[in-house]
Queue: 2 jobs
Job 1
Amino acid sequence: MEKEIIAMLLAGGQGSRLYALTQKLAKPAVPFGGKYRIIDFPLSNCINSGIDTVGILTQYQPLVLNEYIGNGQPWDLDRLHGGVHVLPPYQKASGSDWYKGTANAIYQNIAFIERYNPKYVIILSGDQICKQDYSDFLEFHKQKGAEFSVAVMEVPWAEASRFGLMVADENDKITEFQEKPANPKSNLASMGIYIFNWDVLRKYLIEDEEDPESENDFGNNIIPNLLRDGRDMYAYHFSGYWKDVGTISSLWEANMEVLDPKNSGIDLFDEDWKIYSRNSGMTGHKIGSDAVIKNSMITDGCRIDGEVEHSVLFAGVKVAPGAVVKDAVVMGGTVIKPGAVVEHCIIGENAVIGENAKIGVEKEGEDKGVATIGPGVYVGDGATVGSNAMVRENVKDGEEEW
């Protein structure tokens, strides 16, 4: 059962800044890029990097996520020894606890990790869009003789104060850590992806749990404690595509970037680093004789009879004759009826946009934002939804929602 490295994937995030999209859905289960969910990216990275044992720590609204992961077969993680394991909080002899923080979540699963007696543990986030070879990261960790390594990206100095920052010397050894500082000393932003030597991580998790003042968090507690003790800590520079899709605008932007792989850096058509997902089981898409489609992603089961431009359509979307979809992310099962205009927005799963309704209408004098229609919402015939609106409940015929 012994493994050199196993992955622990933090997938319990509520994703509160995605509002209507995550009311009944864990953030890692949010659809992305036409045929994927966010969690497909770290799972695919694992198997492409040769990591075949993954613990997935779930908590908030796990039903859809658990169902989607299943036995791990789409990612070749249905293994007899290893594979994928969903690890929710559970009742123990000492009582029952929710995961109180990122470090506590790993602490509560020490027994799972010890089953495989790994030398290294990689901690991953289940709510980022990133294509990364973790085997390169592990090789860096070994060559440096590190006890802890963190993947970092250079960000613009003007934005550095939004991130946890690593200050490192010319050999990439970390000398200081700043959590969202007002006066940044570095622009090396932590990606929230860590490699630990397991013996070191285990020691610090236990000590952290015994500290009643701790927030049980990697950024606020574990990393500062490693620095305090002078541990060998290194920053691994990552230069590929990485995006935290934690807001409506960033989720919309990342989906739009899928349509321009040459300039955006995210190529879902890359045969050498495939992103795997669960098959929808739907038939092929059908394009009507009068349909117009320009620079768009059209997925399984779609029926297109209207106009679609620069948009991402997930499985089973129907666009009726006379409907216009532009600069939009339309999630699975949504129906857009005749004459409707849908633009610069995200439409949740199984929504219905009524005849001649208008989504994403820009109000005079306001900045253009990303309109959001929640899953299962019905927007009535002739209704209008403004460009910054967040709609969670049905909109009546002819009503305006700003």
Note: The first helix runs from residue 40 to 48.
Job 2
Amino acid sequence: MDRIEAIRSFIEVASCGSFTQAAERLGLNRIRISRHIQEVEDWLQSRLLHRTTRQVSLTEAGRAALPLCEQLLNQAARLESEIRPATSQLQGSIRLASPVGLGQHWLYDLVETFLQRHPQVHIHLQLADDDADLVDERVDVALRFSQQPAAQLIARRLMQVPTFVCAAPSYLRQCGEPQQPQQLSSHNCLTHLDSQSWTFSQQDQPLEVAVRGNFSANEMGVLTRATVQGLGISLLPADLAQPHIEAGRLRILLQDFPCRHAWLWAVYLSRSYQQPLVRTFIDFAAEQWQGGISVKLPPSA
């Protein structure tokens, strides 16, 4: 039997808890997946899965075998990638999820360069500011802004992204400019749906300020546009704010109180990293973005 292929089927079934979903993800039929599981169980002489009409779950032996099978598959992928002739071209597809703003700017340039280097690769890009479900949506890699990703995911930190409190000159002329973070409570602050407070640094100590306003959204591009139009004050990532800052459409506020930077991570499930293509893409992103995002501030900012 092809033990590598059979082990891959076992890992996929364990990941999604379904023979049918595993078959769909691997591009195989359900009968073949069942045969693979039986082959692995015969090889290890242990029952690895509890099977009922409603669900599939790991036995005690299955829980013990799963991390060892993942290690074995990782080693096989590493062997393939290191021994394969350097002249062989990278092939395959990646399902990639990203926040909308990042996908329209920095990520697009990265993907374009990657595809130029690897023309036989296909990237399926899914843009949304809500976190994608890596299992249900069959995502290989998701890019997320976070201080620390969820513990159940494998994560690699890619770059630090500065964030700025910004407002349009028209808003500041009408409402004035806050000089202290606490003064934001008297301003119309435009917020992301998941954030009702902003964190600053004051004398090397964190300072959390509650903010509120008459407009919130789950997409940073919309908040950026609303800020440029003078609707209120917002906390924006550097990649979205930079062109407006340089053009004078936005001004950075409270520069004596730096905002906490955002970290961009690549998160993935263990089964995804077993693919040489996924590892190559993550390594490429880390290399290209290792310097982070630099922002050129105008002299008047």
Note: The longest strand covers residues 154-161.
